[in-house]
């Protein structure tokens, strides 16, 4: 059972450094299906992990959960969150910084992978505060709020769908963009309908702004320095005047930039999950806004825009 105790060390520490397996483990099957019709069932089904989380997850008050849907800036936010929270032990300019030798997802435990595989006891080895990563809907994670903190990144849904299509094609090359758009519009994407997922975190951020930080991927792209400062304040670790003077914010942004991470050996080789061969380098494709305009037909865009307008009407959350 994952307990609420903590180590004598001060966290966060890279997860790979305290666990034995090392590689990121998701809840994906060992082999992809032979037919694309099985794609949805083959991608991360969170039902087993969700049930295990509900039964066995014991949060600590200092926990920080980094959350998102697939392909919404997850890897970038994971890197930024780790670099920001661990900056005193690991200054961003240090030659031995964990992000220079590890994939960002090796720095944070992936809750679905641990709980679906019965490996959640590995969380006990992490000192507080623990940084954890998930694609789960907020309602599935017991005690995440208002007791702890959650950082969520949201991306414009059409851009998310196009990015997801590019990513899935690395293992499922026959998958079409039209099929991916169908999954998005039908609510059959991994981890459920995108509107329910986004709105679950959005409403929690409105209700508990001290406990849930809702970030927009496009805003992070426009001014990453501002986003990192917001993140640090939310974590209760605002940058001091001395850190600002020393350029620590800019150092974190540069360390975690797409160009920097893409060039690291740990991100050029290996797989996100050793059982399903999504290459790590596929996590670092473009990192831009509005790429959907280069791929979607006008009909696809209108279909998704109609669903977005309907599902988000009256919520206070708008997409450009």
Characterization of the model:
This protein is α/β, with parallel strands linked by helices. Helices cover 39% and strands 8% of the residues. It has 14 helices and six strands. It has helices spanning 39-42, 47-56, 74-85, 111-116, 157-168, 177-186, 194-207, 217-222, 224-234, 241-246, 248-255, 258-263, 265-268, 298-312; strands at 64-68, 131-134, 149-154, 212-216, 271-273, 276-279. It has a four-stranded parallel β-sheet with strand order 2-1-3-4, sandwiched between helices. A two-stranded antiparallel ribbon has the order 5-6. A hairpin with a 2-residue loop joins β5 (271-273) and β6 (276-279). α5 (157-168) packs across α6 and α9 packs across α11. The chain starts with 38 loop residues before the first helix and ends in an 8-residue tail after the last helix. The model is unreliable at 3-8 and 24-44 (pLDDT under 50).
Provide key terms for this protein.
320 residues; alpha/beta; 4-stranded parallel β-sheet; 14 helices; 6 strands; disordered N terminus
How are the secondary structure elements laid out?
Blueprint: H1 39-42, H2 47-56, E1 64-68, H3 74-85, H4 111-116, E2 131-134, E3 149-154, H5 157-168, H6 177-186, H7 194-207, E4 212-216, H8 217-222, H9 224-234, H10 241-246, H11 248-255, H12 258-263, H13 265-268, E5 271-273, E6 276-279, H14 298-312
